[in-house]
Structure formats: C-alpha cells, structure tokens
Amino acid sequence: MNGQRPDISGLRHDLDEVDGGIVRLIAQRAEIISAIAAVKEGGSAGIQDAERERQVLDGVAAAAADLGVSASLVRRVFRELISDSVAQQARRLSGEAGGRVQVAFQGVAHAYSDAAAQKYLAGRGLDGDLTGFRTFREAASALLSGRADLAVLPIENTTAGSINEVYALLREHELFIVGEETWKVDHCLAAAAEVPLTSLRRILSHPKALEQCTQFLESVPQAVATSYFDTAEAMRAVAEQGDPATAAIGSPDAAAAYGLTVLRHNISDLTDNYTRFVVLSAAPAAVDLRIPCKTSLILVTGHEEGALLRCLEVLSGSGHSMTKLESRPRPGRPWEYMFFVDIEGNAADPRTAAALDELRAAALFVKILGSYPAKALRAPVRPGEVGGQQPPSRESVTGPAQDPAEMLEAVAAAPRPAVSRSRHYKLVDRAARQEDTLIGVGDLLIGGDGFVVMAGPCSVESQDQISTTARFVADHGAHILRGGVFKPRTSPYSFQGLGWEGLDLLVAAGREAGLPVITEVMAVDQVQRMAGAAGILQVGARNMQNFDLLRELGKVDRPVLLKRGLSSTIEGWLAAAEYVVAQGNQQVILCERGIRTFESATRNTLDLSAIAVVRERSHLPVIVDPSHGTGSRPYVAPMAWAARAAGAHGLLIEVHPDPAKALSDSEQSLSPAEFAALMRHLADVPAWPALTSSAR
Ligand code: PEP
Ligand code: MN
Description:
The protein is an alpha/beta fold and 696 residues long.
C-alpha cells in the first residue's frame, strides 16, 4: 500500500462483494434445506431436532472462535438462520404456497399487533393486506363476516398475563386458532420534542402498556397516566397535539413513524417482556403431524372433589406436556372457575385425539380452540458447560466398567442424612432434599452436574468498558455477565458505583452479548427494581447477615447469590441462606469468596474445603470467587482450576479490559488475555465426579 491510506470507496466495494457472497451462501443454504425437506417429506420424522440444532450452533461457534470472530455474534446469526429453515420446512409440509390474505388486527398502523401480524406473514411467505380495527371484537367480526381471512390478536403477555377479552371471543364464537406469533415488547417513552421528564404532565398509552411500566411511571409522579385504546394511537395523538408536556408509551418503531423523539428506551418493569399473539381463522387448520404443534382448549371441571386433578391426570398420563394452565372466573357462576389450557400435541394425532376424548369424559365442558404450529415454547434448558464440554455423565465418572444396575443399587444403599444436623436451618439441609437444587437463569441451569462461569468487571464503569468486557467474556465461554453498580466500598471516598444508570448499561451489554447478568443488591428498597432487570441478585460478603435484606430477597422470584461473610462459619452461612429460603425463594446459590484469617499474604483466605462441606450439608449449588478469595491476579486462575476440581458448580471472576485502570479491585482483576488463558485450561480440568447423595 506504499504508505498511503487505503481508498475508502475501494474498501466499500470489497465489502459489498463480501456481503453479496454472504447472501449467495444463504441462498445456497436454503436450497440444501429445501432438499432436506424433500427427503423428510417422505418420512414420518418430525422436522425439529434439538440435538442437531445444538451441534450446528456449537460447530459454528467453534469455527468462529478459531477465526477470531465473535462466537456470540455467529451464534445469534445462525439461530436466526436455523429458525428460518425450520419455518421453511414447516411451510413445505403444510403446502403453503404463498398468496395474498386479508388480515385484521386491533389498533392502528405500527401497533404491536401490526408488527406481529407482519412477522407471522413473513414467516409463512404470505403477502397480506392489513386492516386495523378499534376493538378486538370488531377485528373478530371482520373475520366472522368473511371480510378478513385471518385475525391476529394478543392473547397473553409475559408481564401482564392473559387478555380476557380475547379469550371471551374465543369462548363465544366459532373461531379457531391456526397459528401463534411472539413479539418482544420494548416499550419506550416518546414526545414531540426533547424535553426533561420532570416537565411531563400526561403520559398516554394502552392500559396494558401502562401496567407493564409501573415502576417507570412511579419515577415520574407529576405525570398522569392516561389510558388510550392503542399504543400507536397514543403516539399519533402526541404527534398531532404537539404539546411538549404530553408523552406516549409504545414501540420505538411507532415513535419513529410518527416523528417523535424517544426520551427513554426500555422502560418495561421486566426486560424480558413478550406478547403472544394468536392467529385466528373461521375454520380450523390441518397441521402436518411432523410439525411441532400445540393445542389450546377451554376446560370447565365438575363440582366433585379432585375434578381438576383427574383432568390433569388424563393429559399427563397420555404424555402431553402442558405449556399453559390458567384459571379464570366462570362468567355468570360466582366462585366457579374455568381453565385455559395449552398442551403440546396435535388434535389430528390419534394419541392426542384419544386424550381429548378422555378429557371430555372427565370434564364438564371442553372447547378445543385449535391445533397449530408451536412457536412460543419454553427455551430448552441446559447445564453450564466449559469449553463446549458436556458435563460428565454419572457413568463416565463412576467408571465405565460399572454396571448401571449396580450403580443404582449403590445409590439406593448409600447412607443419607435422615435428620437435620443443625439447629439453625432445615430447608437448605440435605436432609430436606436429596437431589441437588437446579436453578434456572435464562436457558441455563446452575447446580447439579453443570459448571457455570460468571465473569465481568468488579464495577460497571462506562458503556464502553462493560460492553467490551461482555463481548469478550461471552466469546471465551462465560455464561453470565457480572458487574457491580452499587458498591460496598471500605472507604466512603472510594468509587461507589454508577447506581441505576450502571444497571441499565450492564443489562444492555448483557443483552448484546447474549448473557444474563448478576449484580449486587445492597438495600431492601433496591430489591424489587433490581429483580426486574438482573438475572441473579448478589448479596455481598458484608451483607451476608443483613437479615432484612435476606428476608426481602426471599419474597422475589429471582435467583440469589449469597456470598460467604468475611468472618462467617459455614453454619452461619447456611443459616443466612435459610433466611431467604424460609420466605419461599429456594433459588439460592452459595458463593465462597474467602474469609479473614491471620494469613496476610493474600487478601482473604480462600476456603476451598467449604465446597465439599457445603455439598455434603446442603442441596444448594456452591460456586467460588477466586478474585476476592485471593485478591491477587496471579493466584486467580490456579484457584479457579482448583475450585472446579474440588467440586464447585461454577466461578465468579473479575475481568477488566485494562485492569491497571480499574476503579475498584484493580489488583485482582484479570486482563482479557488472562481470562482467556484461565478458560482455556479450565476445560482441561476434569470436573469433579458427579456427586449426588449416592457419592457421599
Ligand atoms: C464483588 O463481588 O465485587 C464484591 C464486592 O464482593 P464481596 O462482597 O465478596 O466483597
Ligand atoms: Mn470486587
């Protein structure tokens, strides 16, 4: 290049060539998928194969890592490609050849329902004329009178629950569910101009959207929340009125369409806020048996005792897993209830048809709302793995020579603690629960045979710092992103953390890298708000015996990571965990982070023996924090490897893009290169023999 700067237009040309190549490869991939679909068409096998999908994702992530490309980016891209090819195969099996349909929805253009309807049509290769109606009922009448072929209506929201009016329409009319679609709701606040939140007097939105942003609305008490029949309509009204004291809640898309300025993004109480839509038709759909299917129904049980249980037994006894069960008052019958039920299965499948017949015999009333291709299914959960390794199976650990039957006998014969050994706790005691407790965070399971790595900076310092770290640790095998935003510092003059603003940065960085986040909660009044955003709530060593805080954490449905106190015994630590569990929240992960001893060569003395003791005495998972445990960078990796070998269920590690510049815990924070080395060798450390009650 003889010292000259490369010509930007030349580089852009090169980029265009590469992009064209990517599109051609996607087209080539689609052709192969279509050939596979043709082969499958002749057989009876289902079109979705979770194991194969996992292999593909692991394969491309490994290839990306070899090339120095972000593995999390490549995973995201391939997840989209795979979901598209499943849809392509389903389309082929359903014989949907495209075409034009008339679609009714409730709301105006750019409403969430509009977006969901378009997504549904695109997934099926259909073109549509979309018409918005004022109410759900009007949209349904368009369908019943033949003015529309399909209606796309919201049926439930993961924050606000079922939408009763739509269930009422399904109960009253001959309408059938023929499909479903999901939409991730990212509410924003938008106004006609950039104005401070304190100057707002009115906030308009659909009542469900207002309900989903309760915590945000409480932070602007001078603005009166006003119901509007649609989120997009509220945006349109704000644009038309041009009053700077009025704002609306709705999608960023609608804000842009009506020329509004977004004042705040992501203001829902919960970050994972999804709405599920049903696609309705006047006639039921026939869905190929190889397509994963769901059937929805309304059920009214008899008056005799155990009536509901009998109905549920029919479904579970016939191997149908239930994805939804909700009870609602039965109209006109005070204190009687009906149930909305979704099961996995296709009413055209003889096995499902037989179960539904049996259900009719056991219940007072059953209305089948339709069988349709399933989209909204719980993500399959997986135990944490290191470097793509599978957690060791019980056989591989106990030795392949052993006969499985013998092993089972050994399990049965193993001595088990019959009674609690402590006066201070009972629910966290092994005696109360033989199996290891498994705690779900996103699609990850913590505990049992899995191994999870939580990594990130001691403190969130800036957007750049946290997103760089997030991407790096995700690409090197971390499962969860850590970052403190409220910091318990020894000196009041030290950096105290970025607070709520830091939490937003942490959550955004985690979302971008595909990682749930963990952060420390210091006070009772932070619990609810933090529980809305963080995957795991951390209780710091200094707060291990903050009993009010522990009790409050026992009341939220969020995993809690409880650090061992600086000078706490294991018994005291388990008793602290009992405070949380006794309030009803069993999701406690213990974390050994070193204790104070007379030893002064390390910041704390990391007590690895605590792992063995805790695993024996309690069913809760226990992880290790070698960063605080040693306080010194060179000791972190060896102690991390030792912790895995000693049976920990995971690690909590401090990583900083430039440790020397870290605003807290600089001495113990690993550089990206050091973290990469830790992870590389961690995969070589044999995981501790899978330990259940049998091995003790
Ligand atoms: C932390 O994890 O950053 C922290 C403050 O830890 P500990 O409570 O163990 O000191
Ligand atoms: Mn720290």
